[in-house]
What does this fold into?
Amino acid sequence: MKALVKEKAEPGLWLTDVPEPTIGPGDVLIKVLRTGICGTDLHIRAWDGWAQQAITTPLVIGHEFVGEVVETGRDVAEIKPGDRVSGEGHLVCGRCRNCLAGRRHLCRATVGLGVGRDGAFAEYVALPAANVWVHRVPVDLDVAAIFDPFGNAVHTALSFPLVNEDVLITGAGPIGLMAAAVAKHAGARNVVVTDVSDERLDLARKVGADLALNVARTTIADGQRELGLREGFDIGLEMSGQAAAMREMIANMTHGGRIAMLGLPSEEFPVDWSRIVTSMLTVKGIYGREMFETWYAMSVLLENGLDLAPVITGRYDHRDFEAAFADAAAGKGGKVILDWTV
It folds into this structure.
């Protein structure tokens, strides 16, 4: 089968032939229909310091996908050939304290699809049945392909109650955009999104942000004054991983404010801990999705009318992966989709 492979320990990716995956008694074989390009895939393609530490070549990359089940293992009962499915890309051990307690998203032995094992940028992918999410209600294929990052957005946005609250989102990348859509749909009073890309800030307005600020020209404090906020933001969603963004968020929170941080910094940085203490702020780290509570929330949000179409800005044949990756790496648009059906 054809697959997009990190074939060599150097920059680049290769579309090449690899053996079709085999499945065990508890596994599912899936024909891939669409995939989404993630920041992780960009790191692997660039072969940066993180990728060099995390990846063993050769490796089929990719973890955002939608497909159709073509075969199930002997012990799989609830999933059938023909089911349309997405996949939870964090494969957990099932034996540690958190897994046994039902907190699988906190497993210390998590293996990432397309990072620690062959992934979904291929004609077929195999997954344990426990990691397969069946779409029981019809979902647009492009949207179903990005359930993994959509889950990151939902997990972050719904970490704290936000009905009638004022929400600050730093970072208008694809997950920040989806978080803005979720926050507004879920009842936030004001949703403010910051970035330095005017193109992405235009997308933020399309998904429902009340105010989109280019922080290269306008401060968050200016945005507060424009909206008439006197005490600061109630909820902060940090999506950028940038030190300046986190510091500015902390400086503009109300006393007792709550921050969910998904953005992954490339290095350590200092923050104003005195402000965190004296303002009694809560800072919560977010990684991945809660299995599978977040997935239920995603499906229900879409059933209830949440529109993610504006977030998807690039669609490519998988054979045009070079152009697709260049689009994703430019940092000006939303999600980029690869079509594996042609």
Summary: The chain is about 30% helix and 25% strand. The chain has two domains: 2-146+308-339, 152-285. The first strand starts at residue 2 and ends at 6. The CA atoms of residues 94 and 154 lie 24 Å apart.
